[in-house]
Amino acid sequence: MNTNQKISISIFLIIFLLGLVGNAISTIGTLGVFAQNTDSTPKTVPRTVLVELFIQEGCTTCPTAEFCMEDLAWEYGATKLILVEEHLWGDGYDTPETNARYDWYVGDGKRGTPDVFIDGLTKRLQGLSCDCIEGNYECYKDAIDEELTRPSLLEISAIKTPHPNPLPQGEREKGEESPQGEREKEGEDNQVVEETKGEDKEVEFVEEKVANIIIEGTVKNVSDTPLKDLAVCGMVGKEGDESGLYNYIQDIFPFQDMPPLLPGTTFNFKFIPEILLTPESEIADKKEILHLVIFVQNTITKEILQVLYIE
Asked: What dihedral angle (degrees, nearest 10) is formed by the CA atoms of 217, 157, 292, 60?
């Protein structure tokens, strides 16, 4: 074999080997693109049910609903069931937001407490189903179990972080209306004391503290169907020692409207709640507990698609 033939064979082998390497790289690249597309395939996400219990102090049938729902909330846990109690009609625990939300749900329809909304207007149970606790407990439980069988179309993730620029703390005169529309109970301790000389008045102030936190996260469409008419919202509740104050709502965030969500796409949100904390002098040695809830609701059907409790 002469030199020219050896060179030709070498060149042929080099070209052949380069071709094999190129095919391998092409195959690897194709597999990489396919792996990226798997993120948009539908996946099953367990549903968490949001139960909104509207109640009023002085309502004679509300304690039965409160007992049943609070017991069910402990039984299921926050990964399956989140209970919020929304007070109404100037009972001392209500807020303008809780009253407005009930009006939004009911419109010109029948009003009264107790009134239970399971995942918004997916299911409404007004009043009691019977006079006994056991019967109402089973009625509520059956409705919750039925809703839990439905897979969620959305996945919510969120975290809370300290506010980098805290809102200013302050003080207000006792009896003066707070930003949330609440009033301190008036008694001898918060009356204006007139001084013996002149018309000057001595005023007692209470310290105001605001929960300086940020809640931010994402909503992802995990279904194979485009979703529209959705908004993300949230609530902040406090925890009391009595029945009816299990997680009583003190702030409801404004809706953040979401654009139509195609399968696999996400929406980012952020909330900065302005919830007033109870003065330390009024809660003794106990630390105040705040309950943070984020949910996605269809603003047309008023159905809640998914909810998340933030630790």
From this structure: 130
* AA letter at 234: G
- Return the HEC string of the chain: CCHHHHHHHHHHHHHHHHHHHHHHHHHHHHHHHHHHHHHHCCCCECCCEEEEEEECCCCCCHHHHHHHHHHHHHHHCCCCEEEEEEECCCCCCCCHHHHHHHHHHHCCCCCCCCEEEECECCEEEECCCCCCHHHHHHHHHHHHHHHHCCCECEEEEEEEEECCCCCCCEEEECCCCCCCCCCCCCCHHHCCEECCCCCCEECCEEEEEECCEEEEEEEEECCCCCECCEEEEEEEEECCCCCCCCCEEEEECCCEECCCECCCCEEEEEECCCCEECCHHHCCCCCCCEEEEEEEEECCCCEEEEEEEEC
The pTM of the full predicted model, rounded to 2 decimals, is: 0.75
The C-alpha atoms of residue 251 and residue 243 are separated, in whole angstroms, by 19
Domain definitions of the chain by residue range: 49-164+208-310
The third-level CATH classification (topology) of the domain covering 49-164+208-310 is Immunoglobulin-like (2.60.40)
pLDDT, tens digit (0-9, with 9 covering 90-100), for 9-66: 555 555 555 555 444 433 333 333 222 233 556 678 999 999 999 999 999 999 999 9
Contact partners, residue 78, CB within 8 Å, separation at least 6: 48, 309
Residues 163, 272: Cα–Cα separation, whole Å: 8
Cα 135 from chain centroid (whole Å): 29
Q: Where residue 167 falls among pLDDT bands split at 50, 70, 90? A: low
